[in-house]
From TrEMBL:
One of its GO terms (biological process) is response to hormone. It comes from Zosterops borbonicus. SUPFAM superfamilies: Ferredoxin reductase-like, C-terminal NADP-linked domain, Flavoproteins, Rhomboid-like, Riboflavin synthase domain-like. This is NADPH--cytochrome P450 reductase. Binds 1 FMN per monomer. Binds 1 FAD per monomer. The chain crosses the membrane at residues 53-76, 88-106, 144-164, 170-188, 209-230. It is an enzyme of class 1 (oxidoreductase). Residues 267-411 form the Flavodoxin-like domain. It is a single-pass membrane protein; Multi-pass membrane protein. HAMAP family: NCPR.
Length: 864
């Protein structure tokens, strides 16, 4: 068969229109495609214009074209976290070719089944993407015909099938029989099969249509590009055995039911935890169970299939407890997101499930304990039986006391329900055993890494909480001109990290404890801090083998992995009490750990309000000298600190900026307590070798986003370091204006103590205002006059303009900073403005503002 007369032009047109169809901004390439196809009269024969256009992923009408483009764009983006990247576009083009080939293969079947003369474009694309959608899991491998294969190979396997089937007489005839047509499934059809087409017409038709070889070449080129950008990087990760284990292991133990049966457990305590507190409470509850002749296990919902909850009743005296923290504005924690999604979609019958819920929240936030309340309500709706009332812990008050109060009433309710009794007093049970390594290869010892061993020496993307990127500090300057505080601006270099961020996102930083505190603990306990050891879980079936990465040294554990600066919780005091040789000190520790009112009051005053950390307690109780390994087992993990990013990726794509104030205060005992992260960052001064200025970090996505339309007005309220995300917002609005976009009013309400002391980013804000990007700059100096002036006072002063922007301009409102006072006062001010100018009652005004929040027009990024 003669080759088409102009294959290069055909191939070029195919590439152009395939990529064009993948980009929603280029959908108007359709008329050009129609014109190009119409140039060949022979192509008009028998509806081949539509077939040609479908062949290059352009469909008969704009609706099917748009649907196909969006579907392909979406699923191609599932292999890349950020759509619009080079890899995303290449994958889109590859899937476009795959869709066209599948259409050619399935066209006779689709036409017969749907009783239409020519299949519409949307159906074959939906079919093609159905296979791709099965790979959109977090796992890197997918089951295909019973075999585990890398997900990126799935569409290419389909491409091979689409290529070889038309060229195999056996498969072609088989497919022809299956669809009930004696048609050879060649790429563009065989004109000789139609007696009404003359030889001349046949030649003309062949010349006007693309051959399958054109598509093969395009697919080959696309495959090479995909390999260059995608597969080539993955090859380096194949030998990484720890990663392979982390992928395969969860599949083996995905059923918590089977694990409970195997280990004889009947109580499972799930935790949704962002900072580790809910996990700690879950561990305490699971350890409590043994006092009542029961056996418990703490479980991360991310590691198990929660649909198995319906089977929990198979276990005698079974109970599911949920310790669920609420993150941000009513959202689930990262590890509870899948569980939350399942609850929303599930229609399971949980009538045999017995449950109880304890929520962890903060009353200063709008949606207090939203996750705990939702889980409690939803489980009941699905038929589960609540055996004890919902507990609501408030971190703005005394979360520890709230938990203890709930726990001391929870267990009696469990005893009554199951007809069991406490077997004795609470006792100390070690969860981990100590193993000291005297002869160990130091290359196998953790030195501060969060996940993979040596990950700081051999950095590999993607970077996240378990694999942070070591960013170099390129700038660290003091922002304030005077005063006692130290406010700073840092810039982290993320070049070559492939980290992408948007204005409003958060940067998470893993700090290190002050070495002097670590050394003092070692001296008091008389321990060689450089001893290499491991703490191994005594429960061999537990997914959590160690409390922190092991093997490591005590020095590393106390520096990078353990929280030694916050006041310890009551369970830690109870466990430590046995090591106090002085009876008075032992009794004092046990009393503070008790649920008695006197003990709670003592714990509140002596530990919490005095801000005594573990070092201060060891110093103030000379007889308390616990083994350092048990102390390391008891202390909670040192958590990452989150900061609102103070830059725009449009202006600073290779750096992330942080605005922070160092925390430093004197306690009631006269000690000077320092914030872990801020004082650690303060000392990160850029130097030439860079070794001392590296910061482990990753980016956490946020819903705190600028409006989609740049022309939408924005009102930003951020006193103190709450200005951080708004620096990024203003930078981005300035960039958009430089690109010729119409930018709406940009209004900032900023507050600080004194104009000549802590007015942050004064020069930058003045420049933005001069350039016309910042249309209004309202600054409240709270202590420059007799009466304090805050941002809410300036809002009231400009209330008419504020209402006009919100009501007529459809402005978006953003609030960043202190949740306890500022955010609440600002919200109350908006209630007053809406009530006055909207002629509404107070309840109506509250409802109006709530609706703004629901619509995403009133956003909060606050902390307490």
């Amino acid at each position: 068969m003669a080759a088409p007369s102009a294959p290069p032009a055909a191939a070029a047109l195919t590439v152009l229109l395939s990529v064009g169809a993948s980009a929603p901004g280029l959908l108007w390439a359709v008329p050009a495609a129609r014109s190009a196809a119409a140039l060949s009269p022979a192509a008009l024969h028998d509806g081949e214009v539509h077939r040609l256009i479908t062949y290059i992923f352009i469909y008969q009408d704009l609706i099917s074209l748009a649907c196909g483009a969006v579907i392909t764009w979406y699923f191609a983006g599932s292999f890349e976290k950020n759509v619009g990247t080079a890899k995303h576009c290449i994958l889109t083009a590859a899937f476009s070719v795959l869709s066209a080939l599948l259409y050619l293969l399935l066209q006779p079947l689709v036409s017969r089944l749907l009783q239409v003369g020519d299949a519409q474009g949307f159906l074959p694309v939906a079919f093609a993407m159905l296979g791709v959608s099965t790979t959109r899991s977090r796992m890197r491998r997918s089951l295909l015909f019973g075999l585990a294969v890398p997900v990126v190979l799935v569409p290419w396997l389909g491409l091979c099938i689409a290529w070889f089937v038309p060229h195999s007489s056996l498969l072609g005839n088989l497919c022809g029989l299956l669809v009930g047509e004696a048609l050879p499934l060649t790429a563009m059809g065989d004109p000789s099969m139609d007696p009404t087409i003359s030889a001349a017409d046949s030649t003309a038709q062949q010349d006007s249509l693309f051959s399958m070889m054109d598509v093969f070449l395009i697919s080959l080129i696309t495959g090479l590009f995909t390999y260059w950008f995608f597969f080539r990087k993955k090859k380096e990760e194949v030998p990484d055995l720890p990663k392979m284990q982390s992928v395969v292991a969860p599949a083996r133990d995905s059923s918590f039911i089977e694990k409970m049966k195997k280990t004889g457990r009947n109580i499972v305590v799930f935790y949704g935890s962002q900072t580790g507190t809910a996990e700690e409470f879950a561990n305490r509850l699971s350890k409590d169970a043994h006092r009542y002749g029961l056996r418990g296990m703490a479980a991360d919902p991310e590691e198990y299939d929660l649909s198995d909850l319906s089977r929990l009743s198979e276990t005698d005296k079974s109970l599911a407890v949920f310790c669920m923290a609420t993150y941000g504005e009513g959202d689930p924690t990262d590890n509870a997101q899948d569980f939350y999604d399942w609850l929303q979609e599930a229609d399971a019958d949980l009538s045999g499930l017995r449950f109880a819920v304890f929520g962890l929240g903060n009353k200063t936030y709008e949606h207090f304990n939203a996750m705990g309340k939702y889980v409690d309500k939803r489980l009941e709706e699905l038929g589960a039986q609540r055996i004890f009332e919902l507990g609501l812990g408030d971190d703005d008050g005394n979360l520890e006391e709230d938990f203890i109060t709930w726990r001391e009433q929870f267990w009696p309710a469990v005893c009554e329900h199951f007809g069991v009794e406490a077997t004795g007093e609470e006792s100390s049970i070690r969860q981990y055993e100590l193993v000291v390594h005297t002869d160990v290869n130091m290359n196998k010892v953790y030195t501060g890494e969060m996940g993979r061993l040596k990950s700081y020496e051999n950095q590999k993307p993607p970077f996240d909480a378990k694999n942070p990127f070591l960013a170099q500090v390129t700038e660290n300057r003091k922002l304030n001109e005077g005063g006692e505080r130290h406010l700073m601006h840092l810039e982290l270099d993320i070049s070559n990290s492939k980290i992408r961020y948007e204005s409003g996102d958060h940067v998470a930083v893993y700090p290190a404890n002050d070495s002097s505190l670590v050394n003092q603990i070692g001296e008091i306990l008389g321990t060689d801090l450089d001893t290499v050891m491991s703490l191994n879980n005594l429960d061999e079936e537990s997914n959590k083998k160690h409390p922190f990465p092991c093997p490591t040294s005590y020095r590393t554990a106390l520096t990078y992995y353990l929280d030694i600066t916050n006041p310890p919780r009551t369970n830690v005091l109870y466990e430590l009490a046995q090591y106090a040789t002085d009876s008075g000190e032992q009794e004092r520790l046990r009393k503070m750990a008790s649920s008695a009112a006197e003990g709670k009051a003592l714990y509140l005053s002596w530990v919490v309000e005095a801000r005594r950390n573990i070092l201060a307690i060891l110093q103030d109780m000379p007889s308390l000298r616990p083994p350092i390994d048990h102390l390391c087992e008891l202390l909670p993990r040192l958590q990452a600190r989150y900061y609102s990013i103070a830059s725009s990726s449009k202006v600073h794509p290779n750096s992330i900026h942080i605005c922070a104030v160092t925390v430093e205060y004197e306690t009631k005992t006269g000690r000077l307590n320092k914030g872990v992260a801020t004082n650690w960052l303060k000392n990160k001064v850029p130097d030439q070798n860079g070794s001392s200025s590296l910061v482990p970090m990753y980016v956490r996505k946020s819903q705190f986003r600028l409006p989609f339309k740049p022309s939408t007005p924005v009102i930003m309220i951020g006193p103190g370091t709450g200005i951080a995300p708004f620096i990024g917002f203003i930078q981005e609005r300035a960039w958009l204006k430089q690109q010729g976009k119409e930018v709406g009013e940009t209004v900032l309400y900023y507050g600080c103590r004194r104009e000549h002391e802590d007015y942050l980013y004064r020069e930058e804000l003045a420049r933005f205002q001069k350039e016309g990007v910042l249309t209004q700059l309202n600054v409240a100096f709270s202590r420059d006059q007799a009466e304090k002036v805050y941002v809410q006072h300036l809002l009231k002063k400009n209330k008419e303009n504020v209402w006009k922007l919100v009501n007529e301009g459809m402005a978006h409102i953003y609030v960043c900073g202190d949740a306890r006072n500022m955010a609440r006062d600002v919200q109350n001010t908006f209630y007053e403005i809406v009530s006055e100018f909207g002629n509404m009652s107070q309840p109506q005004a509250v409802d109006y503002v709530k609706k703004l929040m629901t619509k995403g027009r009133y956003s909060l990024d606050v902390w307490s």
